[in-house]
Amino acid sequence: xxxxxxxxxxxxRADNELQEAAEALTKAIELDPQSWEAHKERGDVNQFxxxxxxxxxDYDRAIEIDPAEPRPYNNRGLVYEKTGKLDAALEQLDRILxxxxxxxxxxxxxxxxxxxxxxxxxxxxxxxxxxxxxxGALHIGKSAWHARMxxxxxxxxxxxxxxxxxxxxxx
Length: 171
Hints:
Blueprint: H1 2-14, H2 18-31, H3 36-48, H4 52-65, H5 70-82, H6 86-99, H7 104-116, H8 120-148, H9 155-167
């Protein structure tokens, strides 16, 4: 069945048996053409094999099947970056961030691309937003730990994180 072939494709990819992974994932797609995950996984394998046009086609199909899933956008953006299409890569990140403004991976990748393009103010905003999110996550974790240990979380930390996240441009 399709799920078995998908699992086989993932296993083969993890074992760096890329051609075999591509074949298994193609079988998964033949059995379930509506599997966004099989298309995304085969796109990943094609990307590793430097078959960029095929990878883009697989990511496009995965997005067509489930436009709310961010991973095909992310990975299509990686292909665009590898092929020198930095504006197209940034467009993928903007789509991800529109769906999930708190996506730390997308924010840090966007900052890196902005630095690469020498767009320093935009890079600083993206890095700042990523830093705020990471700082907030760290302190939220600390607050959760205090709550678990039946200790009161520091209200100043909670208020400061909320204010910083609210006031920071780009978050």
